[in-house]
């Protein structure tokens, strides 16, 4: 019989303190991993396959690098800036203790799980935000400049939005802004920052901008599928508890995404007479983005309505307004991040201020404060019009703050980087792509415009057949 000998100062339940709920901790770690899979491999695959063949590796590596770089910066100082003690009303203090055992094994600021789970959960949100920004810059940004951009933008832009809106000490959190899972902090931020950075980096090569066919649409759909299913953790993990609210948020998320996809598809058929695969993917993304700020605070019918609107309004802004507005045409946003994330995120933030159910809001925020967290529609219905109007006004203030901060901070960061290294690749790199930038190619059998010469392979097969026939094994 084997015996387990424990040190005298060791207690058998040290790994399960009374304040920790195993189910909540397990769900939080699972949710974080699902969000991580949205980036790696989800967006790595999607970016690498939706771009022109010569940019497949560069696009995938931009996403992969951002994921790794954000993790190191996040545990080093990013988490404390976003969720630490207040330095100013929109930023926390850095005390570099996010890797200390005492901190990581103590209870998180909210939820019945340790700080280690919270740091991990918040990291994957920060990482995907930077990867979404990369979508606006594919096909021409200097990779060294991107390596500098990621830690700088995380430090001086993302942490400000996260602290202001998600940290209990943040000024917008205290004001009562509703951002269930990142409509402001992630999607509006990435859409505005990506568009701003694209302005400073400049456009792709003219021939790339005119014709930019995906190198593998089926593989793109695989990445998009991982992104969609990963949103289960994206919105399902934000109650910080395995609760009814988490279940509602997950169902609303998928209903809204499906409705948005179908709406976008029908509009493509109606106006262009062909159902677009890429269009359907865009519709899926805009639905997921739109429901994010409101996922657990709206009822099912509201999720359907939000899906209908997220399939229409971003479609209109991308297909019509983008071609009509001079400024939008000047900026080369490779993956249309401005429309799919900034426009859809803004739409979701406004609709959260209109459709938020006060009962569901109070379950999520665990408060009973009537002036806050009641959508305008319910304010009118319950005779609390001023409270509903106030909520909508708070949402608009949050949108304005995130928009302005990201334009300014992203511009300053790009101008600062430009003094050290060029923001844009050389003309040779822009023209040649992956081979010039990395010395590697995604599809190395043959290059652009070349046909596979199988004459040598046929000759080898003939020799093999001749040898087999001589040995008696041939047909």
UniProtKB/TrEMBL annotation:
One of its GO terms (biological process) is ammonium transmembrane transport. Its main location: membrane. GO terms for cellular component: plasma membrane. The chain crosses the membrane at residues 26-48, 55-77, 119-138, 145-166, 178-202, 214-234, 246-265, 277-295, 301-322, 334-356, 392-417. It is found in: Cell membrane. Keywords: Ammonia transport, Membrane, Transmembrane, Transmembrane helix, Transport. GO terms for molecular function: ammonium channel activity. Residues 26-443 form the Ammonium transporter AmtB-like domain. It is a multi-pass membrane protein. InterPro entries: Ammonium/urea_transptr, Ammonium_transpt, Ammonium_transpt_CS, NH4_transpt_AmtB-like_dom, RhesusRHD. PROSITE patterns: AMMONIUM_TRANSP. The keyword Transport applies. The keyword Transmembrane applies. Pfam families: Ammonium_transp (PF00909). Belongs to the ammonia transporter channel (TC 1.A.11.2) family. This is Ammonium transporter. It comes from Solanum lycopersicum (Tomato). The lineage of its organism: Eukaryota, Viridiplantae, Streptophyta, Embryophyta, Tracheophyta. The gene is LOC101266264.
């Amino acid at each position: 019989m084997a015996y387990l000998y424990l040190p005298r100062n060791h207690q058998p339940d040290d790994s399960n303190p009374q304040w920790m709920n195993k189910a909540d901790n397990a769900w939080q770690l699972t949710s974080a991993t699902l969000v991580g899979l949205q980036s790696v491999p989800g967006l790595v695959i999607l970016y690498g396959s939706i771009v022109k063949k010569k940019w497949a590796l560069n696009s995938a590596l931009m996403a992969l690098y951002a994921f790794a770089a954000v993790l190191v910066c996040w545990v080093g100082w990013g988490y404390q800036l976003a969720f630490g003690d207040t330095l100013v009303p929109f930023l926390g203090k850095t005390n570099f203790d996010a890797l200390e055992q005492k901190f990581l094994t103590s209870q998180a600021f909210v939820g019945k799980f340790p700080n280690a789970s919270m740091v991990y959960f918040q990291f994957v949100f920060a990482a995907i935000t930077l990867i979404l920004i990369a979508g606006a810059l594919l096909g021409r940004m200097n990779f060294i400049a991107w390596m500098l951009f990621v830690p700088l933008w995380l430090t001086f832009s993302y942490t400000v939005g996260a602290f202001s809106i998600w940290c209990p000490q943040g000024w917008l959190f205290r004001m009562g802004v509703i951002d269930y899972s990142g409509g402001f902090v992630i999607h509006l931020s990435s859409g505005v920052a990506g568009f701003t950075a694209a302005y400073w980096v400049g456009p792709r090569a003219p021939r790339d901008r005119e014709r930019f066919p995906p190198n593998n649409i089926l593989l793109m759909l695989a990445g998009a599928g991982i992104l969609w299913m990963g949103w289960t953790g994206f919105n399902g993990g934000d109650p910080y508890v395995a609760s009814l609210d988490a279940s509602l948020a997950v169902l609303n998320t998928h209903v809204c995404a499906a409705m948005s996809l179908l709406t976008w598809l029908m509009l493509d058929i109606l106006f262009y007479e062909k159902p677009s695969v890429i269009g359907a993917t865009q519709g899926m993304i805009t639905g997921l983005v739109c429901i994010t700020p409101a996922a657990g605070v709206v009822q099912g019918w509201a999720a359907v309505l939000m899906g209908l609107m997220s399939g229409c309004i971003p479609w209109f802004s991308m297909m019509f307004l983008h071609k009509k507005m001079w400024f939008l045409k000047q900026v080369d946003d490779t993956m249309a991040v401005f429309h799919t994330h900034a426009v859809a995120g803004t739409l979701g933030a406004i609709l959260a201020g209109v459709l938020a159910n006060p009962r569901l809001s109070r379950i999520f925020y665990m408060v009973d404060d009537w002036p806050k967290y009641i959508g305008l529609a319910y304010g009118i219905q319950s005779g609390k019009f001023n409270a509903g109007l106030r909520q909508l006004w708070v949402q608009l203030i949050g949108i304005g703050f995130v928009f302005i901060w990201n334009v300014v901070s992203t511009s300053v960061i790009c101008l600062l980087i430009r003094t050290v290294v060029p923001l844009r690749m050389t003309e040779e790199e822009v023209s040649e792509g992956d081979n010039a930038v990395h010395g590697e190619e995604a599809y190395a059998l043959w290059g652009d415009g070349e046909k596979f010469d199988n004459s040598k392979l046929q000759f080898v097969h003939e020799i093999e057949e001749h040898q087999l026939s001589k040995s008696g094994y041939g047909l």
